[in-house]
Records
---
Amino acid sequence: MSIKNLTPYVFFDGTAEKALQLYERTLGAKTEGLQRYGEAPETSKARTPQNKDRVMHACVLIGEARMMVSDVPNEGGSAGRSNIELCLDFDDAEDMARKFEALAATGEVTMALHDTFWGAKFGTLVDQFGIHWMFNCATQAK
């Protein structure tokens, strides 16, 4: 089995931490793996003084469900960006690449598949119906 999970990924414009606190208080959510843009490698375009405290990534457990949360980097505009994307987590990078290319054939690649600093191959696209997809496959043992 190549696709392990389908996870909603929700984007905020600087309010992710407040949202996490609300979900923890009202829904009993548990936040795991919170990372800030200030923790990204120095070569990251998003690692700027105005982004350093913004949430780059967090996993939120609500009951048995999981969602990912991030603040959009403060780069002077997130107009037109979807605030929800679907993240497919794979265990086979070659299968992920085939499925990425198949979905991209009638859509638009927004970030080509590439190796990341978090030890995964990752890419994004928008399908022909306007759905935003993230493809992720761990390449290193965690």
---
Amino acid sequence: MSRKQIHLAAHFPGVNNTTVWSDPAAGSHIEFSSFAHFARTAERGKFDFLFLAEGLRLREQNGLIYDLDVVGRPDTFTVLAALAAVTERLGLTGTINSTFNEPYEVARQFASLDHLSDGRSAWNVVTSWDAFTGENFRRGGYLPQDERYLRARNFLEATWELFDSWRGDEIVADKETGVFLRDPHAGTFARQDEHFDIAGRFNVPRPPQGRPVIFQAGDSEEGREFAASSADAIFSRYATLAEGRAFYADVKGRLARYGRTRDELLILPAATFVLADTDAEAAELAHHVRRQQVSGQTAIKFAEQLWNRDLSGYDPDGPLPEIDPLVGENTIARGRASVRMYRDPLATAREWRERAAQKKLSLRELIIEVTGRQTFVGSPATVAESINDLVQADASDGFILVPHITPGGLDPFVDRVVPLLQERGVFRADYAGTTLRDHLGLSQPRAAS
């Protein structure tokens, strides 16, 4: 039986507590040199793509800008277009919102990026759920979850019609006159549905890939169904064997009802890693990294998101609050954390208190434990084996790696783990194609007639 080939990508982690800001090697998250170093490292490792997240508004907590967001993030399309000039094969994936943007604008930006990069663009389609973010836009407010995904599906289909409005053969040369003849209908489009009523002429020729590769990140029932119907890859939060296999089987099992095969949708969990010469040294380093990622102040911020209260007067190195969380609308945080992360805050608080009492954990130590996401910890050989085992067991098709040091944190993985995967014959030694669809093993979609 042939072994599956592993897909690897790299996530520039953005503004959050994943990055160990106190490390002297931590660099800027806004200077282009950071993005260029990160992208060149990923390409040196023959990764499929680089991924950028996107936030449309700074989060707030207790009425103040959430401190881990202050540095912000440059515009996604600007960064990816610049990276297209300093890379040759690496895919360029950006998160673009379907709730507050418009199909014509987004299609034009992705078609342009695909041309500039010779077919390496990808779009992570996301929705927004809160009116707080919507205040930055003329069309504010928010949509219910089912309505958000309906708009996203209509939005995506509208962009496909725009890409397909140029079939690629509209411009031909008349040999006798030397005049270029154009199909008078090239670029014309019309779309009318529950959310859009647009018609006109698209002014960018069909992209090299036909359409950008489509990614989706939702884990809800609506998100999984949207991915099965429309996406080329789905980000997963499940990087363990049991949970990963369950998610993999569920999402892949939905494809047939849309006339799709299992190899037409890739499942790629995000994954962190900590490397050292030995497993024991890596475990010690991982513990140190987690304490750097969750300072006392950060622990209080995380706890407030569960308790829905101001906990600034509590000692992070002391016990958990004895008071119960405030149930209902989250008023302590606005933005990405404004939707309650815990379905039953009272039950979660009881569980946290019991765990803290049993293990004699302080509030900070408890937060470190419950928010930990260190997926791969060990020597290069251990990490390579763990990654391969999960992929071969159909817990994923590969991983999107998130280093804790930016921009240089990806280098040790590329230098020490990638060669071991190549020796196993489960990861490419070089790029076989030129486009992102080539890297991912995806066929180019045909233009609509």
